[in-house]
Amino acid sequence: MSDDAAEVEQPRESFDRSAHVYDDHVGFNHAGAQRLVGALPQREYHDLLDVACGTGFATMQLIDRYPVRTVTGIDASAGMLEQFSHKLSRHPDITATLRVADVLDMGVPARSMDLVLCTMALHWFDDRAGAIAAMAAALRPGGILALLGPGPGHDAQFVEISRTAVPPILPELADSILSNEIYPDEMRGYLRLAGLRELDLWVERRQRRVSPDQYLDRMRAVASHLWAHRTPDDRETQLARADAALCAAQTDGAFVYDFTKLFVVAEAPESR
Ligand SMILES: C[S@@+](CC[C@H](N)C(=O)[O-])C[C@H]1O[C@@H](n2cnc3c(N)ncnc32)[C@H](O)[C@@H]1O
Asked: ∠ at Cα 238 (233, 242), nearest 5°?
C-alpha cells in the first residue's frame, strides 16, 4: 500500500461509487438479511434504526413482515442513502429519516428504538465495541439488536489464492478479508460491554459457486477503496491476475468459496 495517507480511501468512497449497482452484486447478502429478520422474536417493531443501512434491504425485509412506523437510517455514504430513499418512497405511511452520519455519532436519541439493525457493516467500523455500545444506547428497554456480519473463514479460498501467488495478488484485499472476520466470542464480549443479553448467535457457512466475474464484481462493489491507491494500470494488472487465478481455480465451471456469516440477536434489559 502507499505510504501517503492522503491517498487511502475510506469504505464510504467504494460505496458511493457502487451504490447504483450494489444490490445487483450482493444477492447472497439479501438472503442473509432475510434469515436474520426471520429469526427476530415476534414483537411490535414500530421504531427502527438501520445502522450503516446502505441501500436498506434489511429494513425492506422488516417492513414486509412488521407494521413499522418510523425508519431512521444512517450511513457514511450519501450515494447508498439515495438508493434507500427511492425504495422508502414507495411506503408513504412510514416516516423516514435518512442521514449521512458516523456510527459513533448517529444523532439518535437514547432509548428511542424498538429495533436496531446492522447488516454487513460492523467489519468496516474502526471501533466495533464502541459501535455496539452506541447501537445499544439507542434501544428502548427490552429493545432488540439484530446484526449480521462476516464470520470466521469467509472468502478463505480467495485469501489462499492471493497469498500463494508470487507476488501476492491484491494483498490488501486478502488482509482486509482476514481482519474483517468477526468471531462469536469477540461478539459476545461486545454484547457484554454494551449490557445486552444474547438471545441467539450463530455462524452459517455456505459454499457459493460463482463465475470469476461475479466474484470480482462483488469485491468491486464492496471493497474498491482498498486498491484505490494503486495507479490505474496497476489496478488493471492486479484485477487481471485475480481473474486469471480465479479461472484457474474453478471446479466444474465455477469458483467455489466459503460464504461465512455471523448472525446475532440480542436484547436490551428491561431496566437499565
Ligand atoms: C457492505 S455495506 C452494507 C450496507 C447494508 N447494511 C447491507 O446490508 O447491504 C457497508 C455500509 O457501511 C457504511 N459505513 C462504513 N463505515 C461507516 C461508519 N463508520 N459509519 C456509518 N456507516 C458506515 C458504508 O457506507 C456502507 O454503506
From this structure: 145
